[in-house]
């Protein structure tokens, strides 16, 4: 979150975007989309711009169209990063909205899904959310995880992984450089009992999967390839 790459191409937030609805789940306003009676669910954990980002919700709807019940909570309690506010204090924001708190807040959402009869759950985390997803991957709360251009992931986090995990990284990433992602892949590949996938996308920057410029055909293509990889991972492991 410290890098300027996290702040590039910020979305214009829209509380009404997407085909789903906002519901209160475990005390959090949550974007919910997909078949409500599905036994398979995906938890999406956003980047620092939060759950009202149109491209993030568009991806949630895409995952839902594959048959999953998708929940994307507002882990920032109505306080996403707001670069239009001249008083915005990045360091103060980061102290309030820690990934450890996001992880704790995710647990009751997962419990709510299970109480609805959901039998298998996957989690995908973007940038900030990647750390939440990898922490969930060290538990038996979920069945699979995907980390997309994650930030602040450590070797210890990767060593703790217990479930199938995919890491989709950018070639141009100052936060989690490609070499670091490859190192994570080496650690995961040594865990023969756990399925893993590590992929570096050439020519793209941190945040590309949900902050691409829609008029940039190449950027859209790279984002859509990552989306398909994520969906394929969940189709394989959340069943």
From TrEMBL:
Highest taxon in the source lineage: Eukaryota
Name the UniProt record assigns to this protein: Uncharacterized protein
């Amino acid at each position: 979150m410290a890098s300027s790459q996290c702040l590039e191409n910020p979305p214009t937030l829209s509380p009404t975007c997407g085909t789903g609805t906002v519901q209160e789940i475990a005390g959090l306003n949550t974007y919910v989309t997909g078949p409500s009676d599905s036994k398979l669910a995906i938890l999406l954990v956003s980047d620092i711009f939060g759950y009202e980002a149109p491209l993030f919700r568009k991806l949630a709807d895409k995952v839902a169209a594959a048959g999953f019940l998708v929940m994307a909570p507002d882990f920032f309690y109505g306080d996403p990063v707001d670069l239009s506010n001249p008083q915005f204090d990045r360091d103060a924001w980061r102290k309030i909205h820690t990934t450890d708190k996001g992880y704790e807040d995710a647990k009751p959402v997962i419990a709510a899904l299970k109480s609805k009869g959901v039998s298998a759950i996957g989690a995908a985390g973007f940038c900030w959310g990647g750390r939440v997803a990898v922490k969930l991957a060290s538990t038996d709360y979920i069945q699979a995880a995907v980390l997309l251009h994650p930030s602040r992931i450590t070797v210890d986090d990767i060593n703790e992984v217990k479930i199938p995990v995919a890491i989709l990284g950018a070639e141009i990433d100052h936060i989690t450089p490609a070499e670091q992602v490859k190192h994570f892949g080496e650690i995961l590949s040594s865990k023969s009992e756990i399925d893993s996938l590590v992929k570096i996308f050439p020519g793209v920057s941190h945040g590309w999967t949900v902050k691409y410029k829609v008029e940039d055909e190449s950027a859209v293509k790279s984002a859509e390839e990552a989306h398909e990889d994520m969906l394929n991972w969940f189709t394989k492991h959340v069943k």
